[in-house]
Write a structure and sequence with these properties.
Shape: globular
Protein name: BED-type domain-containing protein
Helix content: 55-70%
Low-confidence stretches: 1-5
Organism: Panagrolaimus sp. ES5
Largest sheet: 2 strands, antiparallel
Strand content: 5-15%
Number of helices: 7
Order of helices and strands: EHEEHHEHHHH
Length: 150
């Protein structure tokens, strides 16, 4: 068994790291993880702590072309939300999820993954912007967990 985090692929669009813009071969997920471990350990640790691993048998790992197709489809979904301006709440719509689940080899990205990808597309590219967004996400989550004091 191998631990695979689907979110590791969400750090890459067309084999390019969204944090530092380096091109990384996506044929094997270990290349992507190694890049994240070496160059972005903080971001990787944050993602790993929020995303539970999926245990996969060796023969069931997705191929590079399936991973690229999934990444491209997820990217198109994100572009759809950006271009239409519709609420991300639609990701929870039963009918949309059924439609997306009908696409072979496509994993619907989590709301958090879509939010991060959208922010990275809309914010000017810099590590500072990424960290500001992560800090904002953490603050939002903390506020949702604690009852509001009035």
């Amino acid at each position: 068994m191998v631990k695979v985090l689907a979110s590791h692929r969400s750090f890459f669009i067309n084999e390019e790291c969204i944090i530092c813009s380096r091109k990384i071969s996506g044929k094997k997920s270990s290349n992507l993880r190694r890049h994240l471990e070496r160059f972005h350990p903080i971001e990787l640790a944050e993602f790993d702590s929020k995303t539970p691993p999926i245990k996969v048998k060796r023969g069931e790992e997705e191929t590079a072309s399936e991973g690229k197709q999934n990444s491209n489809l997820a990217n198109e979904l994100i572009e759809y939300f950006i271009s239409t301006g519709i609420s991300l709440d639609h990701l929870n719509n039963k009918h949309l999820r059924e439609l997306l689940n009908a696409i072979p080899n496509f994993s619907i990205p989590s709301l958090e993954e879509v939010q991060i990808q959208m922010a990275l597309k809309l914010l000017p590219p810099s590590n500072e912007s990424y960290h500001e967004f992560i800090d904002y996400q953490k603050l939002n989550q903390e506020q949702q967990k604690s009852p509001s004091q009035k």
